[in-house]
Design goal:
about 575 residues, 3 domains, 8-stranded antiparallel β-sheet, 4-stranded mixed β-sheet, about 35% helix
Length: about 575
């Protein structure tokens, strides 16, 4: 029994998971790896080695245990023989867990081997034939009477039990998102701290890893639907380093800039960066025809990269730049592929922001991490092979200046706020509000939540504000034109709007609720006093209808849980505004 317990834990879980991950992500030969394990066992020379190498090897059948055990006691063990030799690769049934159950296994009592039942047997064929034939009625049986309908009932509509959510709010997908987020949070908390390289950008990623739960408001901040455990270990934020791959795209399929001219391509082709997971999992499944006719060619070139909290955005060490590439997994509420519009609007929006900031008083307190190039491959969804190149912070900070991602600020306030928290908050509000309100008055509502802001500090005091990722901002086109600015957006872009309330909702939610609201909660300061300080700073830099909107008695708040339950896009609920009363 002791040997069986050892073999199940050591080989059924630990070694199997490791070998499956090496096979999938590094192309290792599983038979060779299991041979190494078997050789190591034989080299021990212990009496246990023959038992561990015997054929067949028992593996704990946990599902059969739950099915066969006495429900009142849930006791008993059921072991089944699964593998042949530990150096045989036949136990690997595709990616994921190496000891995944085989199809066609029936229940049995503890102690007996589970019989094989071929999939698609007579029972399955009979069931399929019955479904095709439709409902049967006995020749001598009278047809059923029509069901009686009680007064006030609608025929065909089932009544909902009191207290049970409406059917449209019973989404099993949300439960799966929560489970996935919990599992990935546990993995992140269990992983050792990855080393941090030199430079402000790499150090910023090190700070980002403090926010292990992910998004500060979203209930599924660690959701990575589409990744298995091996993918999380290879590509998530806690991974020390990964790589970026490249594909060659025929020019007639390529739309936009040459994002990576460092790799020379032959005439008629353009090199496009791609996330390794996207290259290995999405391209073969969706674009096999383009790979076969060589409209797309997977290149051997790869460059080192470091994942950021955004996952699809990766730092390129030594370059001072980032790449944002399509990653078709769901993180929080959104699949992280990139639209054609984002790739074409990014450089144009960056140029517009540079013009606005340069002309504004105090513009030197804003550091724009500009999007310098963008391209897409408009095949399939048009979102699977997009890439955007972005400036970093290397060489742009002053001596003693430290850039800290907003997501890490709640965990560093005790170190940054060395004296009066009220004075520190006033300085921080003066850093944020004047430039962002000035841009809003000209028609630009930046998505200023914690993840997109990197405030800089000197000696713990707020100094400058670095801003990144402009894909989610809103541009009020009439205000821009009135201020003498124009921009050519990609047709159908959601970033441009004629509705001023849409623009205000973007900056209001991200700046006041998601950003400053989190800082207020974490400061050692009375909330009423904290919001009074923010209101005083807002009064000094915002006027007119914008001021009235941001200080209204009620403001719209994004209902993240309700959005996931309903699945109908953005949902906002009115909430009391702490900026209303002074």
């Amino acid at each position: 029994m002791l040997r069986t317990k050892l073999s199940a834990a050591a080989f059924g879980t630990v070694a199997a998971e490791l070998i499956a991950a090496l096979t999938r992500h590094h192309g290792a030969d599983p038979a060779r790896l299991w041979g190494i394990v078997a050789a190591a066992i034989r080299d021990t020379g212990t009496d246990d080695a023959p038992h561990l190498l015997r054929d067949p090897l028992p593996v704990k059948a946990t599902t059969a245990m739950r099915l066969a055990a006495d429900p009142s006691t849930m006791s008993g063990h059921c072991w089944r023989t699964r593998w042949r030799h530990t150096h045989d690769a036949q136990h690997l049934h595709g990616p994921g867990r190496a000891h995944r159950s085989r199809p066609g296994r029936a229940r049995t009592r503890p102690g007996r081997r589970l019989p094989r039942r071929p999939a698609g047997g007579r029972r399955h064929r009979r069931a399929a034939a019955a479904r095709r034939a439709g409902p049967r009625r006995h020749p001598g049986r009278r047809p059923r009477r029509a069901a009686r309908v009680r007064p006030g009932r609608i025929p065909g509509r089932r009544r909902r039990r009191p207290g049970r959510p409406a059917r449209r709010h019973r989404r099993p997908g949300f439960a799966a998102e929560l489970r996935n987020a919990v599992v990935n949070l546990a993995i992140a908390m269990a992983r050792p701290q990855a080393p941090i390289g030199d430079g402000p950008d790499w150090q910023a990623i090190g700070w980002e890893r403090l926010a292990v739960a992910g998004h500060n408001l979203h209930p599924c901040g660690r959701t990575r639907l589409g990744w298995d455990t091996g993918d999380v270990l290879a590509y998530d934020l806690e991974t020390e380093q990964t790589r970026v791959g490249f594909v060659a795209v025929r020019d007639e399929l390529h739309l936009g800039d040459d994002v990576w001219p460092e790799i020379k391509s032959p005439a008629g082709w353009t090199v496009q960066p791609v996330h390794l997971w996207q290259r290995d999992m999405v391209l073969p499944a969706r674009y096999g025809d383009l790979l076969r006719d060589r409209s797309l060619i997977v290149l051997d070139d790869e460059v080192p990269a470091v994942p950021t909290a955004a996952l699809r955005t990766l730092l390129l060490p030594g370059t001072g730049e980032y790449l944002k590439v399509s990653l078709d997994i769901q993180v929080t509420s959104t699949r992280r592929s990139i639209s054609v519009a984002s790739t074409r609007n990014g450089p144009a929006v960056s140029q517009l922001l540079h013009r606005l900031v340069a002309a504004a008083p105090g513009g030197d307190r804003l550091l724009l991490m500009a999007e310098t190039a963008g391209a897409a491959v408009p095949v399939g969804s048009g979102r699977d092979l997009s890439a955007i190149r972005r400036d970093g912070l290397a060489g742009r900070l002053q001596p003693g200046e430290q850039a800290i991602p907003g997501g890490a600020l709640p965990f560093l306030l005790d170190d940054l706020v060395g004296g009066d928290p009220a004075g520190w908050l006033r300085d921080y509000a003066h850093l944020l509000l004047p430039p962002l309100m000035r841009l809003a008055a000209q028609g630009v509502a930046l998505e200023a939540h914690l993840q997109n802001c990197l405030p800089t500090f000197i000696g713990g005091r707020p100094h400058r504000l670095a801003l990144r990722d402009f894909a989610g901002l809103r541009l009020h086109l009439p205000r821009l034109q009135a201020a003498g600015h124009d921009i050519n957006l990609w047709p159908g872009s959601v970033v441009g709007t004629d509705d001023v309330d849409v623009m205000r909702a973007k900056i209001g939610y991200t700046l006041f609720q998601a950003h400053l609201g989190e800082i207020v909660l974490r400061l050692d300061l009375d909330e009423t006093q904290a919001w009074r300080i923010i209101r005083e700073v807002l009064d000094s830099c915002c006027t007119g209808d914008d001021h009235a909107a941001f200080t209204a008695p009620m403001v719209p708040h994004k209902a993240l849980v309700r959005m996931r339950l309903a699945g109908d896009g953005d949902v906002h609920l009115p909430v009391p505004n702490p900026l209303h009363a002074r």
